[in-house]
Design goal:
Blueprint (H helix, E strand, L loop, with lengths): L10 H14 L2 E3 L2 E4 L2 E6 L1 H7 L3 H21 L1 H11 L10 E4 L5 E6 L9 E7 L11 E7 L16 H7 L6 E7 L2 E7 L3 E5 L9 E2 L11 E5 L6 E5 L5 E3 L2 E2 L5 E4 L2 E6 L3 E7 L1
Parallel strand pairs: 2-4, 3-5, 10-11
Antiparallel strand pairs: 1-2, 3-6, 6-7, 8-9, 8-18, 10-12, 12-13, 13-16, 14-15, 14-17, 17-18
């Protein structure tokens, strides 16, 4: 790993910890060894601010590292199957297992820890085996890594302004409004933060706007971000079954500008009426 400032997280730190979590979350079924396909990474808000502008690139690199590791494992099955069996106390085996991913693709998400559980330098990762919209598949692993903090005010690297700081300056303001109907009836949601996450939510799935609706809507379906300087909004699709804006698909893991007035549709199921204040 390249040298880094003491205590400051780098992209390589996230890659290393995801791969470690991947190995700890292995799940054996007869001759198959399932690998976690879903990774949710939580960082202290100031640490998260460092990754905010390059988050999509970092997620792409993590997925590439997962692909590489999966290929390496399937190229040396006997040795790694033996390691797994010893770890779970299953004894010796000469039969190699195939390492497989249940979901069609990797899901990698990076979030700020808004609950205040993490301190600077900590990385917390939740992983699961299968696709999130199908069921609450809990098999996987939770890991936390602590990087020693050896810095003071004079040596601490500068970081972008955290979204929570901007929210302090704009506290009480409503930037936009969302009207929608779910299984509990018509509702309204005021957008008062620079980042809101929309979906069905659930255990280990924190969302700002929680929809009570069909499972085609992912637990974390899309994100809406506000640029603090320009006041413009963008929407990012992080779902399985898609997000459209005025009928135009956003694209998986893509981000597009959100008009002042728009109809946002989630998986063809839930419709949100978006209006900038």
């Amino acid at each position: 790993m390249a040298a880094r400032a003491a205590g400051r997280l780098q992209g390589d730190d996230l890659v290393i910890e995801v791969l470690r979590n991947m190995e700890e979350g292995l799940f054996r079924i007869r001759r198959k060894i399932l690998v976690p396909a879903i990774y949710r990474i939580y960082l202290q808000p100031d640490d998260y601010a460092q990754f905010r502008d390059v988050e999509a690139f970092v997620r792409t690199e993590i997925r590439a590292a997962l692909d590489e590791k999966l290929g390496q494992w399937n190229g040396s099955k006997i040795r790694l199957a033996k390691v797994l069996l010893e770890k779970i106390g299953a004894g010796e085996s000469t039969e190699a297992g195939e390492y497989v991913r249940v979901a069609d693709d990797w899901t990698v998400e990076i979030y700020p820890d808004l609950d205040g559980k993490l301190t600077p330098g900590e990385i917390e990762i939740y992983s699961e085996l299968g696709a999130p919209q199908k069921a609450d598949v809990s098999a996987g692993s939770v890991t936390r890594r602590i990087i020693p903090q050896k810095r003071d005010d004079a040596t601490r690297p500068a970081a972008p302004v955290a979204e929570s700081d901007e929210e302090d300056r704009t506290k009480g303001r409503s930037f936009a409004h969302i009207r929608y109907v779910d299984q509990n009836g018509p509702k309204e949601f005021d957008v008062t933060k620079n980042l809101i996450i929309i979906g069905r939510g659930g255990r280990s799935y924190w969302v700002d706007l929680r929809l009570e609706t069909l499972t085609d809507v992912s637990r974390e379906h899309c994100r809406i971000r506000r640029d603090a300087d320009s006041g413009r909004f963008t929407i990012e699709d992080v779902s399985q079954f898609g997000t459209t804006v005025n009928g135009t698909p956003v694209g998986k893991d893509q981000s597009v500008e959100l008009p002042d007035h728009a109809t946002i549709n989630l998986a063809g199921i839930a419709e949100l009426e978006w209006n900038v204040a």
